[in-house]
UniProtKB/TrEMBL annotation, chains A, B, C, D, E, F:
Its EC number is 2.7.7.56. This is Ribonuclease PH. The gene is rph. Belongs to the RNase PH family. PANTHER family: EXOSOME COMPLEX COMPONENT, EXOSOME COMPLEX COMPONENT RRP41.
Amino acid sequence: MTMTRPSGRASDQLRPVTLQRQYTRHAEGSVLVSFGDTRVLCTASIEDRVPPWLRGKGEGWITAEYGMLPRATGTRTQREAARGSQGGRTLEIQRLIGRSLRACINRQALGERVITLDCDVIQADGGTRTAAITGAYVALVDAVNFLMKRENLKRNPVVGAVAAVSVGIYQGVPVLDLDYAEDSACDTDMNVVMNDGGGFIEVQGTAEGHAFRREEMDAMLRLAEKGIAELVTAQCAALAEG
Amino acid sequence: MTMTRPSGRASDQLRPVTLQRQYTRHAEGSVLVSFGDTRVLCTASIEDRVPPWLRGKGEGWITAEYGMLPRATGTRTQREAARGSQGGRTLEIQRLIGRSLRACINRQALGERVITLDCDVIQADGGTRTAAITGAYVALVDAVNFLMKRENLKRNPVVGAVAAVSVGIYQGVPVLDLDYAEDSACDTDMNVVMNDGGGFIEVQGTAEGHAFRREEMDAMLRLAEKGIAELVTAQCAALAEG
Amino acid sequence: MTMTRPSGRASDQLRPVTLQRQYTRHAEGSVLVSFGDTRVLCTASIEDRVPPWLRGKGEGWITAEYGMLPRATGTRTQREAARGSQGGRTLEIQRLIGRSLRACINRQALGERVITLDCDVIQADGGTRTAAITGAYVALVDAVNFLMKRENLKRNPVVGAVAAVSVGIYQGVPVLDLDYAEDSACDTDMNVVMNDGGGFIEVQGTAEGHAFRREEMDAMLRLAEKGIAELVTAQCAALAEG
Amino acid sequence: MTMTRPSGRASDQLRPVTLQRQYTRHAEGSVLVSFGDTRVLCTASIEDRVPPWLRGKGEGWITAEYGMLPRATGTRTQREAARGSQGGRTLEIQRLIGRSLRACINRQALGERVITLDCDVIQADGGTRTAAITGAYVALVDAVNFLMKRENLKRNPVVGAVAAVSVGIYQGVPVLDLDYAEDSACDTDMNVVMNDGGGFIEVQGTAEGHAFRREEMDAMLRLAEKGIAELVTAQCAALAEG
Amino acid sequence: MTMTRPSGRASDQLRPVTLQRQYTRHAEGSVLVSFGDTRVLCTASIEDRVPPWLRGKGEGWITAEYGMLPRATGTRTQREAARGSQGGRTLEIQRLIGRSLRACINRQALGERVITLDCDVIQADGGTRTAAITGAYVALVDAVNFLMKRENLKRNPVVGAVAAVSVGIYQGVPVLDLDYAEDSACDTDMNVVMNDGGGFIEVQGTAEGHAFRREEMDAMLRLAEKGIAELVTAQCAALAEG
Amino acid sequence: MTMTRPSGRASDQLRPVTLQRQYTRHAEGSVLVSFGDTRVLCTASIEDRVPPWLRGKGEGWITAEYGMLPRATGTRTQREAARGSQGGRTLEIQRLIGRSLRACINRQALGERVITLDCDVIQADGGTRTAAITGAYVALVDAVNFLMKRENLKRNPVVGAVAAVSVGIYQGVPVLDLDYAEDSACDTDMNVVMNDGGGFIEVQGTAEGHAFRREEMDAMLRLAEKGIAELVTAQCAALAEG
């Protein structure tokens, strides 16, 4: 095919991915994740409380919040705290992050505590939610390890790895890990969350322009499988350090 | 397979679907859609204005709002107007409905006007968002036909049909059109929106329990294709009346 | 007198009234009430809790909420949940419904529980608050009967019937049960809530144009007494079924 | 009758009423009204604008806002500005004040301007809304006179006087102008707004305990007529000064 | 120097100050303070509860709220309760008042209770926050004395007097107690809160036009010391009555 | 004196200060400022609009917003966007930043545009507002230089440098640039904003424990003067690069 991606990447090529642990010092887990120019700070905070509807059940909870600094984007976006509410896009993304990370945790083994994953976008260039999930997993493991050391948990509540990537149809061609230039011009955009066993946790595909066909969907899912395998490798490498 | 659905339906069987047009008299389109015990009132309202960011561009907009009457559910849920904001689930669903319906409209042909699709759940038994999309399409067509008669539009802005259905893995078996009993106990839940040409508009799959495999996904997509073909037939039949 | 009502009704004639019980299946009481083209869904929901200021006092509470579907009206009105608050008119109406229904309940006999009456207007053509009160009474009785069967209450907490109707001065003539065409053009509008013993529970009269005289008020009250007697008969008939 | 009012007043006796004009110096009208220990500051503010829905129609608008200082009451009530919204009671009262004062104004003669009546309760002892209406009328006349002097209006837009009083059934006896001790213990409470020609502008009666009978209503209305005549006299006397 | 203040006052001269105790009858302390045309009603309300973070610690809390009646000012300002939130200026002022008054209280001696100081501006002419602090101190002492009589506290929790005044540079000259005409035209505005021992509790200086020099700051602080000494004398005199 | 600061610094010693320009790539100015472990991202965004009250006046505006990432602090603080409003502390700080930066800009020379300074705390260890002001100045200069290059402004609107530092009394000794350990235990805390000409722009001193004396204030102001001179040097050095 003769399509050229704006970044010059191959159609099945991720952007450079970095996972910088201990980026800030207060949080039990703190990771700056970069997917190219997209940079998201993911912190994991442990609190010894559970939501009211979980009290006394002997299990914990994982929740997520997502934010975008006002000038993470090309033009300034209004601060949600100043506007007085979180928008629909923000709520949708943080619900997705929370569900995705809960899929890799045994909540009984966690015990009656909450781990909150705050994912704040420092700089945006497409794919902030998939970078957030990928980085939040590493922050979550760091927080759980902190807990394991201090609390002598009987079992490790982390039951697998979780990573996410976007795929899409750009100028008729399935591509992996869309950046902003591709995302704003693509026909179809799909976010895929998977575990390290090759199972699907979330698939969210949207036709922006024309509806997509089954064979396009299959091609996108294959790209996502490839990308996520590489992301899981990067997560393992980051966690193996220090 | 020996699994029995709570409703006794076959695994590829929709609930009885009805689409009652002109359910209320003020709206340009007004449809009560039932998927079994799930009943949603979908109204389409035409306004001769566009959002600020579309002014002077010669094209229109389709938007949607979703609500649930407090006692549409088994236990009363708090009224969002009383609470002071729409929840994340509501925002997510109404964004989905709006995107889905925009996929079947030529916005230039619509001209500078907005059609708002209000989807209010009178009674809930699972699948309210897919029933809403399926019913809203019929209300939208009625509203467009109202406009065609009155305004002498040059072209019909409706460029295809849109319908939606849920599929899932219930007790290990892929099933079509989950009701509440299945939805609250299933392993995987996927909402699929398609057009009448067999193209995908939205695919949103979530692993509630264990992650799902590619072959399960394929089976679910096949069920969705079958169900949506039946729903499109029901939409056509409803629109052919009167 | 030579005045003709837009609907052709006699000045002391109600619109056709229907009270359809068990309209939805989850609520302990669920009634669709119609006063002509005005249709309001009234559900009664029982919860085994009381507001904080009633805890430990051995008595219950009746409360009401009121809503209007966005396209219940001739032009679409903004959804209160989307706007972020209930308007003054909504709060005023739901306070009125709550006070009216509390007047027919012995709160000691009810015990420590709350019954919430949700009155949602499906279609509006004037008189939505009086239809809501009239229908909510029937839903409340159904909910109390549900409770009597299940809980073996010693006494029936319902101590009388409550119904409501509007009266007004239209083109100089006192009329009963104003529809929208009359309501938007009348000089005086009065909502009257009474019990089945002929006692007044609420009287709310407003001069829209010129101030009204004592003799006009007397004439309106006589019409209200007649109309409410007929509404109480309709309530009894509806409750006698099934 | 042997009933004694807590204040020792006769059943048809108002509390001492004072209307202190020019209480503050910035507002075009500023009146401190006292009904006994109830003290309300009523200011009238003129603005040369109209609400959007009145633009270009050549007529003005009268609106009202009502507030209660947190410690106007026996125990401190939460500040509505701190809570983030005005309660249902506040909205209901300010809508009543606005409607009542609009009844004495010719809006064409007022021209395209808004007069806002702010009624803030400094000290509460029952009857704050009726005191507010009675005082706001005097502030409104002062503001209109300010406008007449400065703007050379062709006609005086004030077309009559408006005053308000509460009546009720206290220990079985109809009484005029309830104070807090009576209000919190009465069976029925009715607020009556009338003009100086003996016409009714608003009647809002509520049975707190047992439903009230027609003859009780008639007795209350007679008391209201007497009280309002005295209030109109007090308004005239206050306006005749200075 | 030849500068003349708009009010004709000497540069080190306060406006006439009055402190009228028992201005309203419900609050445990209630003071109307006037600094010239600036009039603020300060009430002190005692509640036998503490904020959650102080429970069981055996100490109390002092908090403050500030409000401005809509027409306290030359042109009407929007009611914060209607707008749905307190503005930044309001929050800043009430935080200042609360901190200032806490500086004169021994919270252990107060015991587990909260005293709330509500400072509501009836009429504004500059210096509302300094008048509020000065008046709130007198209301606080009255409330504490009420408590001492009723509760037989072992120690008086009031450990000193607190007063506040503004100073500024007006037309190049340091002046004491700016009124609105000066405040809106001055180069520098400084609010100073001190105790009766000559210690500083708060100093908040802002250069409105050019930055101010150390020697100007020194001159302003000397004026503040003089003014506050006079205000403390006025507070003592007011408290010595009755 | 024998007092030892928790950090081991001399009493007149700043923490290590860094100003990293072009920290993110979208904003016209983007600076990560560190005062020791306190790290604040300051971005300057130019928009070609002015607030309504400045339209047509030929001058611009500088405004600021402040935020704290939820886990910038030792324990997680609630996200203001999730809570639905900015707290009093946030509003107070962003008002201070805005006023401070406006003091170094000629608004006529800026022309009809707004520069918004977003100061987001990535990691907090005391002194976030003074770090924010110091960093925001550098971001503002970068944004103005961007504008000068692109727009060929006649004059440079920056008329001086602005920096800020905190000073306090810690264990009886005046110290410069308090970190969190000192800030939470000090008797007095003062934030000082000055320009590069030695003029004061803001002085905000608060006695946390005992009131402070004039001589203590003088000592603190001298420390502030020294610290700000060093900060201005650091700003110049950062701006001289690149």
